[in-house]
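Forum: Protein Structure Q&A
Topic: Joint prediction for protein chains with partners

I've read a bunch of threads here and the consensus seems to be that you should model interacting components together rather than docking separate models afterwards. I'd like to see that in practice. Below is the full input, 1809 residues plus whatever partners are listed. Could one of the regulars post the assembled result?
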Amino acid sequence: MTRWGMAIDLDRCTGCEACVVACAAENNIQTVGEEQAREGRAMHWLRIERYYEGEFPDVRTRFMPVLCQQCGAAPCEPVCPVYATYHNPEGLNAMVYGRCIGTRFCANNCPYTVRVFNWFDAEFPAPLDSQLNPDVSVRPGGVMEKCTFCVQRIQAGKDEAAQEDREVADGDVKTACQQSCPTKAIAFGDLDDPDSEVSRWAESPRAFSLLGDLDTRPGVVYLSGTEWREPAE
Amino acid sequence: MRLGTTLRLFVAAVALLAGACGPTQNLPTPEQPIAYDHQVHIEAGLECVRCHRGAEEGVHAGMPSVQACAGCHRREIPDHPEVQKVMLANENREPILWAKVNVIPDSAMVHFNHRAHARAGVECLTCHGDVASMTVAEPVRNVADMGWCVECHRENEASDDCLACHR
Amino acid sequence: MTDRPQASARALDGELLGRLDRRRPGLLVGSLASGVLVLVFFYCWGYQIANGIGVTGINRPVFWGFYIINFVFWIGISHAGTLISAILRVTKAEWRRPVTRSAEAITLFALAIGGLFPLIHLGRVAIFYYMIPYPNSRMLWPNFRSPLVWDIAAITTYIIGSALYLFLPLIPDAAVMRDRAAAGLKKRFYAVLALGWRGTAQQWHSLEWGIRILAVAIIPVAVSVHTIVSWDFAMTQTPGWKSTIFGPYFVVGAIFSGIAVLMIAMALLRRGLALERFLTDRVFNNLGLLFVTMSLVWGYFTFAEHLTVWYSGDLFEKLVHHVLLHGDFAVPFWTMVVVNLVIPVAVLSFPRGRRPLPTALVGCGVLVGMWLERFLIVVPALSTPRLAYSIGDYMPSWVELGIMIGAVGVFACLYFTFTQLLPIVSVWEMREGWRHAVSGGESGQPSEAAPTSAAASPAAGGGAA
Amino acid sequence: MSSGNGKRGEPRVTIGRRDFFKVYAAAGVAVLQGCRRRDQELIESPARRSTALPGASVWRRSICEQCGAGCEIEVRTVDRLAKKIEGLPSGFVNRGGVCALGHSALQELYHPDRVTEPMRRGSSGELEPVSWEEALETAATAIAAAPDATTIVAGAPSGPLLGLWRRFAATVGTPPPVHWQPADALVEREAARLAFGESTRPAYDLARSDYVVSVGAPLLDRWRSPVHFGAAWAELTADRRGKLVQVEARHSLTAANADGWLPVRPGSEGFFARGLAGLLLGSGTVGQEGRSAYEALYPEAPPDLAATVERCGIDADRIERLAAELASARRPLVMVGGSALEGENGVAAGAAALALNLLLGAVGRVGGVFAGVDFGFEERLAGDATAALPPAALADRLAGDGDSGVLVVSEADPLHGVPGLEAGFERAGTVIACSAFFDDTTLRADVVLPVQTDLERFQAVEPDPVRGVPALLIASPTVAPRGEARHPGDVALALAAAAGRALPWPGFQEAVESALSDAFTATRAAGDDASDPAALPASLIAGALNARQFVRRTTDAGGLLGTEELRRAPTRLPRDGGNDMPSVLPDPAARAAPVGPAGVESFTLIPFESLKLGDGRGANRPWLQELPDPLSTVMWGTWAEVATEDADRLGIQTGDIVRLTGTVAEIELPAMVLPTVRPGSVGVPVGGGHADYGRYARGRGVNVNALLDTDRRVAGAGAFARGDLRVRVERLRRPRRSERPVIYGRGLRQAEEIPVGWAPHVGGKA
Amino acid sequence: MTAAAQDHLVEAAFESVEDVRSAVEAALDSGVAASQIEVRSPAPLEEGELPLAKPKSRVLLFALSGAVLGGLTAFGLAAGTALAYPLPTGGMSIVAGPPVGVVTYEGTALGLIIMTVLRVLWEGGLLPGRAIRSGRGRPSDFDRHVAEGRLVLRIHGLTESGAEELRELCRPRTVALG
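Posted by a regular:
Agreed with the consensus. Here's the joint model:
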């Protein structure tokens, strides 16, 4: 069985945000405009969190890309009253837009705050809509959305493999963020396959889960040579 | 009023409503800009995939280009009034906008993949009906009826994961 | 078998009917004025449906705002009635008689409004029915693991139960209205409501059984409703929400705010309909005692809730706790403590404070306080997510304010209209009380249910209590 | 009862369970929704045949021209529309990566407010659509009437297109074009010329170094190639092998990622380089060869540590530690760029920093610095036309030409970059803009000639020599051009023809092909003689029978790619006639620190290019506008970065509107109080405050360039000096709701306080 | 004709229960069967206040059966439907115990409440169609007296003379007679 997973090497991430735009381009994420963004309604599925360490001049800035962690035990799933978000057999936290009625319960229950909501219908003034990815639905207003691990690419990868009568190989499916990363800080693949790149990354002694204490069993693994929360002195 | 009578009336009313708006009936046959006759073309020896090139290999079956239509019709009945419309569009390099017959509305957010179904051996007529014997293509069943999709997927052990279609 | 109580009961009977018969232009004005707010309510909701849920001020990470606050608030108000009246009925408290009808009506109307708020809150209200379990061509069912589906189950049960619990005791009174009305539209209206009630022994007997069973059944339902509402929060992993205390805390809060609104409604009724002889100071005194008790219980729960969080030292919980007690939300938090605990205890601990005007004023404060409590549960927890990068804030839009104020109008309109159309004091239950007083002959009972003329004067009533 | 279930062959006698439910459901839905009319959807028979299946993805190779880096990209097209840009894994510069700006080229292509037809200012004073013929006629007439008074401003990066504009100028008889390019690029070349003897931007072998000191070079920000340098940085720091130390006043993204950050006082970078040299010279670890090479250029004694500490504002022990680590590193490297070069003293500072490589023996060494070499296609197209002029020349031209002047601005927005030139533009007789958008300059134009964007055009690009390996990248158009837009090179050729001075090629593609053909011939002719500047390395033409075949093969292969063997150290030419290399370099330590006006507290303004908007080019893309700046997390606007310490003193809170007053102008913008800002400095991103440039950029933010004094130049480089500008900072007011900066990450916390749970990875198994 | 003769009705309104009691006792003494007597009161009467048989009620029984029915329906919805049409949930439980418990709890309460009310209405002849069949609940001009707080005694199935006799019996204490 496949368990899609991602590993992000924080030591390689520069915070350049190429992935953020790649994600928006791939997934038809609407830009909400200045007014809405000011309200806190920007819709990035992937964000680069920035934290400081120390005081000037010994201050350091650290970046952490945060996206849907595709938890193995996801807090968002059980609270949805209509099964619009559920656990997919391949370990994805699926989000079915058509089913979503917009209670926003899932977003509240996400410890990573990675779910975003379509407060209004998306606007893509022509011909900007020419760019829209035909493999991804344009979500209507009132619907929750989040990172899908580029599920359309996963499906396309499986379709391609099936057409060629073979199994999906490691590296067949690349997420948009992974693809564009200049420093190659992202690995994606099957965590159940011990030989996949992502599994090998996940075995690293530097690997950890974000908010691991919550036991949400994320499908996203972070790698960092430095601890994030330093012991109190 | 007897209980049985009430129940019967209720069932009748429900059936009436279901008939009016239900998934399987009363699908309108849309009006097309050109009176294209499927039967005639099939009888002339054309295969579905000759024009709908993506039906087996592609995600979408697709429509033939105006250029392709005109290519054949330069020899075949070029003077037919309906064919003339195609020839004119070809001359003007204009596309032809047909009305979709089998529609999965955008709001369903379904991404149907023809080639996956062709690979699984699903016949065209399962969804489209026997178009070969139709003059004007008409819907034979509501292809946007999710229950029907799911039933078929389960029977054939295809994925019944929502993400297989919705994404 | 003295003549005096008998005659006094007859006189009171006549007086009560007279009070109910009297035209009250004030009520009509009230209905119309609140009708304007009803229009505001529907305009705002319509505007939101037409333009999208984004016309509100909610955002990421504060995904829930005024609508959920008001949902919890109104569901809390609804505990005014059914629960209180049921408890009083089950405990056979005689002084319940003038109160129950009003309480039950408040419940039904508050519940209807409270139940609307989750729908108003939905991003796509047009397909709210996906939450309802019904067989469909998609072969899909709602997710029964979601507390929201439990909400639907609980609120449906409660609203049906409350409606029936209001309706059942109303049947004999509808018959009274029918039989006293002149032939015409009015009579036909009451005739429909009365269902052909004649007051036969069998009817009374069945009705008493029914009320008895409903009173017992509605108590666990009411408790479950607010418990489940609390689980919308407590069943999550959100810091500031995941608390085992939330169930009873919410129930207590609900009863507390329920009593508050009941006190206000009764004080208004007493003045507006001149029902001093029926809604006696004794009633206010008793409710006032219940009120201050709930205030103390609520205060205890609040203390327990925050003490455990503070003592646990859990990082995330403490962040929420911090913004509540010392941070951005300190002002509403301490306001809440004052109006919900300090003022009620200070005022209601004394007999003079348990008279209609002070109790109503305290009730107003408690309503504000309890609304703030719901605000302080919803917003600070959401605006303080675990990953502090996404800290947010929340400012309601005019649409949310309009709907909130409009909802008050809808409630007032329903309540005024109900008061105009139907006896807001249960006539048959009062009569039953007087009969008990006559046959019981105890000295205390008549003065409670059928006060002497002296009791009509507030000063004397207060002194007696 | 259900129909159409015949395939299972069951007799349908009873109502099935599902059917029964379906009937129920249908009734329910019908009641709730009413009987909805099915909206008719359309499907198109395309006019023309296509080889691709309908709806199938076709990936086409292209080159990203959003900056001069020359990333090779793949564009996913579906039904002839561009959908997505991805890095070509074999990309010469980018190896599969793309940056945020690169992705957004799609939104440039499909921007709703693009100029897609030629326009001319009519009698009403408004721009009106006209035909290409009319537009070209108007433009050519103006140019032909006064070629001497015509100024061409070409925004294209160096390469074939710039060469074509030079050729155009020479043929039509105008002065050489002004090459509108970033100041630091120009200064970097001049500094390299002084230090290394070659006027090209140096190539840095970051990946194979083990200790990199970057003096102001924002290599991970929007600089020469964020994708290349990002990958190189990752290689440098992988497994904590190497270190990057950033010497820069501002906490840029590079500083944020660096292993060490030395926030030197702005403008003291050159002094710092000299001071560092002093410590290295004193450490005794520097080789004799390096020492003598360095001391030949800087005979004066370098400043001592105390002076460096005093001038640069860095603790002595930090400088000493840096010097010690640098001295003990195996393959140290010093880079320079960005704000270090943008002050009036930029050239001296840049040269001083680059010269450290001489001292450390890093020139031409693995993990060191190399010459930025190219195949010279700019020259090949330019022929014998004079070299292009630096940007500051535009100010002089505008001052000189008076009312009759004609301005031809191609793919550049000088009025956004230097708003101080506005008066000059006002005076100009005719302004001709070749642009895809109504940017600040195009708004002033009398004739607007719509040009194609990256993906629509034939591309021939000489990438920034970041790798030290020459290349010429060629790609065909990916999608059909929008409207009547034309290739800017074709526009130049058409303009020349309309002016009666036709160039020898019908189009840009033919011009490039002819240059390739000539290069082939020259290479054949040169044989083994590698010194002929017109010849290409012989290996590149190996196997080609004739010029025609070579051209075909090259265009099919996507250009000419050099190999690592072509990488070389810069060659310092002997000082003789024609080489004006000074024997001694200007010592930045000899100059006094700049002082602000007396009596008022002044701050040093640090304008910087953010990763999202760059020099302003990105401002019209909603994706980029809504992209949070990685450091301040601000979206959709311009902000001023103020140090916590300064903010406390001035009573400024994040979001407050502050006024920055410079010598020529003042701007008002919201403040971001950040713990990373060096006290006494204020950082403001460029790229905001467009007068138009489409709906997403219009009136968004403020243009910090307005504070630039056009009289301030970088000495010796012909560039406007952007650095070392002193401004006054005043708090004005709390922001109105519509003025509040759009801050994405509102939590401004220390990482230690951040509840980012550290827990062992639990395997992620469901 | 004889049937018509047996169809006379006596109606009398009284101020107090004591008055009704004495009238009822007198009527019983005069040979009227208890089943012929109907008392309409403005409020429920205590047990034993009148020398008439206590009415029977099965509301409780129905309430309990309603509870069982409601509980089963809710359980079926929460657990059964999900099992009948399982959705892919990637190994997550589709039916979990506590939620089923919650829904069953509410369903039980709802069933109980609805059945209680239905039974009350049924027994009281208050459901549409029931009142006519039961014969007792006919409207009367004397209902006005009930509304005003008096009690009304109705004796059915009397002959004309019997009716007149009973009227005389009632007259001393009655407020109105008919």
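The radius of gyration of chain B is 20 Å.
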